Amino acid sequence: MARKTSGRKTSRKSAARRAAPRRAGRRKARKLPRRTAQGLRKAATSKRLSGKAVVKAPRKQLAADQKAAAGEMPQWTTAEIEEAFRRFAAAKPHPEGELKHINPFTLLVAVVLSAQATDAGVNKATPALFAAADTPAKMAALGEARVQELIKTIGLFRTKAKNVVALSQKLIEEHGGEVPNTREALEELPGVGRKTANVVLNIAFGEPTIAVDTHIFRVGNRTGLATGKTPLEVELKLDQVVPDQYKRHAHHWLILHGRYVCVARRPLCEKCLINDLCKWPGKTVLTS
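^ thats the sequence. predicted structure below, dont judge the formating
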């Protein structure tokens, strides 16, 4: 006949286990190794090759976004920032803007039209517009009513038509029909703000400016690369942290990343080049 196990003996063992101090509590925190660019590169390659995407719940993603918006994010190291842009450059060495244009003037007009509209939507309307008017003189001669007719598929087309004709007239009167190459002069044109001026300076004149739109604002805050409550704050921080050799194309890399990978509703972290560097606590994780 089998002997019954003593309940008292079992309870004593349980009590002893509860009383025993946890090993983890006695361990000293290990000092994490310094993250070098070479080490980051190897770790990222290994994780992308062997990993599987695990999506975090929307509630957790929302909480993470709120944390990011509050600026409660770990700081990126210089090596991490350098590595992030090295990857962007390797993946797309010569990025280009997606707004179709013929010259600096049509670029300026396209960017003005893109405010609160998609590049794809603008690109559907501008071929006919630019076929009719690709210089300030032709645009001014076209007139506000005709411009409205040609861009009526774009949101706020009445206001935008008025601004396009007005800026064309101002270019003729004050700049000899040429697009100025300074931010101050550009921002004096009707319908042109800092973001539009930065895009024109970057694409038309090769200046290392970073135009912060909704995509770059999201990427900067979500990843922790450049947090800020306003587009200007994010722009100034990006200007400080982006390495000089990458500033010329940083605008394009970040906007394309925000438009196609780090999207608002369901970021595609499993396809992200900088997943392992990103500080966003709500990101999709890669597991073996």
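The radius of gyration is 27 Å.
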